[in-house]
Design goal:
Radius of gyration: 15 Å
Number of domains: 1
Strand order of the largest sheet: 3-2-1-4
Order of helices and strands: EHEHHEHHHE
Shape: globular
Largest sheet: 4 strands, mixed
Strand content: 15-25%
Helix content: 25-40%
Number of strands: 4
Structural class: alpha+beta
Number of helices: 6
Distance between the termini: 31 Å
Amino acid sequence: MIYVPMLLVQELPIQSLNDQNPAEAELVAIAVYANNTGVPETVATRRIFDGEEQFYFPTEITAGAAKTRLVYRLKLTQWRELLETLTGPGAPEALKQLMIPMLLYLQGNFPDLFGALDYDRSLDPNIYARVLPMQ
């Protein structure tokens, strides 16, 4: 069985992009594998990006559920390097499942930086992670 993860992407405040080179802006993405376990989406996506507690998954509600979280905290230039490597035919399918939709999301938001990148189009789009932009 293939689980379709959710990919929570922290939206970059426009002000931070105006204050610096956009390619140097840091973007956080969190892959959550809980959607296929019966955990309500509002619980599976609960998070705090900043502060002392970075993630909060209430165990009293999600006891026994698989909750795997992969966290990527990179500058946009680093995202470009990562996506060049992990969206091609040689990358493992589980990583392409996350990284191809991330690339498509970034191509839509930062076409100057990501528009020229290509990806392995043979992966079934039905198993792509669902990208959820978060505040």
